[in-house]
Automatic annotation (TrEMBL):
It comes from the Bacteria. PANTHER family: DUF2252 DOMAIN-CONTAINING PROTEIN. This is DUF2252 domain-containing protein. InterPro entries: DUF2252. It comes from Limosilactobacillus panis DSM 6035.
Length: 152
């Protein structure tokens, strides 16, 4: 971290609970280390939160959706990424006015989608996993198959 920029970082983190959460991945990591984990090592994002997912274009001009921030990626426990993603979904949902019962549904769907993606990846070769992309049509099919309907 650049010492001169720390006051700006701290100011931005004060904007909301979600902003604080985004700026403190290392605090959550310390807390998660104290919890039971499977110790199944995989490549994790290291900072899986909803703002680190988004749309981008492939070289083939396809609209893709996925993780777009890899600066914290490393070998770690899958639970860490899933827990961080779930907390971020809850905080972002609260910040955007989601009702409590809809937030619960959102967290259930997030977990179901994560589980679905892991099962799919486990049926793929390492090469296929490496080159896998999630196109917009894949997203539409996934939303339809999982019955995702969300409202505030």
């Amino acid at each position: 971290m650049i010492p001169e920029l720390l006051p700006l970082r701290h100011k931005r983190m004060l904007a909301s609970r979600f902003s604080f959460f985004r700026g403190t991945a290392e605090l959550m990591e310390q807390d998660l280390k104290k919890q039971a984990q499977s110790n199944i090592p995989i490549v994790i994002s290291g900072d899986a939160h909803v703002n680190n997912f988004g749309f981008y274009a492939s070289p083939e001009r396809q609209l893709l959706f996925g993780l777009n921030d890899f600066d914290e990626a490393r070998i770690g426990n899958w639970e860490s990424d899933l827990k961080r993603l779930l907390v971020s979904a809850e905080l972002a949902g609260e910040e955007n006015g989601f009702a409590k019962e809809n937030l619960y549904d959102l967290l259930q769907l997030t977990t179901k989608t994560y589980r679905h993606a892991i099962k799919r990846a486990n049926r793929m070769t390492l090469s296929d996993v490496f080159y896998f992309s999630f196109e917009i049509n894949d997203m539409i099919r996934t939303i339809d198959s999982l019955g995702m309907v969300m409202s505030r």
